[in-house]
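During the reporting period the student researcher (J.K.) took over the structure-prediction task from the postdoctoral fellow and processed the backlog of single-chain submissions. One of the processed entries is reproduced below for the supervisory committee.
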Amino acid sequence: MESFRPEQAACPECGAKMLQSLSQYPRHLNGAHGEGHVYIQRYECPVCHKTHAVLPDIITPHSPYSLRFKLEAVKAYFERIVSVESLCADLGLAISTLYRWIKKYQDHKALHLGALEDIETPPRDFIVQFGEPSILTAMLKGFFAKFAFSFFQGKGSSSHRHRICQLVPS
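J.K. obtained the following structure tokens:
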């Protein structure tokens, strides 16, 4: 959150500057180290009065699971050390959830790398590089800038009442 500057941020709806702090709300988060809450800062545009939540890069929009947790689950799947059933039981996930994450991961890997590099890069090799936080942050920032939605989020829906901005440190 340190790099987000509301006075410099533009409203995603109308483009106005100088977003004003409105409130915070707790967000439940299931992560690799257990469960907890993260407080999400909300801002309001002084022109159109739309509200916007600014998420830290550890959060996947519209999901109770941290990005790191999802990446670790998908990585464990590609390492094939245990069966899918055992992996899901250990993580407390439905098998369908894991397969949905794998599909989303593969789709976004292909988007990020492009067709040729995607074919040449095994899924596990791509995910292993994100163990380094600075590499993950750079990838998230580049992915969001290029596609206007977050890695592991999907294209999202415009029907949400509050617009969500993915915050990635500069």
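The committee noted the following: Helices lie at 67-79, 84-91, 95-113, 115-120, 123-128, 133-147.
J.K. will present the remaining backlog at the next meeting.
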